[in-house]
Predict the 3D structure of the following.
Amino acid sequence: MTPRRRLRTVAAAAAALASLAACEKPAPIVTVVNVGRSVYAEANVFCFEGQSAAAANCAQRRTGSTTLEVVRGQTVGVDVDKEIVDDGWFIELSDPGAADGEAEPQQSEVQTGHYFTFTAPNLPTGASLLLTVRSLNQSQEPTGEWSFTLVPR
């Protein structure tokens, strides 16, 4: 190999390494399932190690929510990545159309397993329910948020 070719090879390898180092670690995924259908989402917001919601320096990934059509009265399952399980997480159900203070969101207990289930409520046609999954750190402060909109099938 000529010195010039060797130099180009080393430069290309260094450029490839630099581009890999610039990549952000992906945020954990949350999956929601109901009667054979499933959707998944990356976090809207996720605090990696050294970041905190209080400092407002967490990674902003996406906006909005992922929609899942659910069958009334059937089980809805929420499956989270292991990284979320380590310090705990919970779900929150709320009416996206409710005015502030009109309806308090329902919140589960803090979960320490990767899977949680609840029964899909009897939503009228055209209505929706916002399912928010929130991860916690060891101090029980929020570290991540995933949003799903549940609509009747």
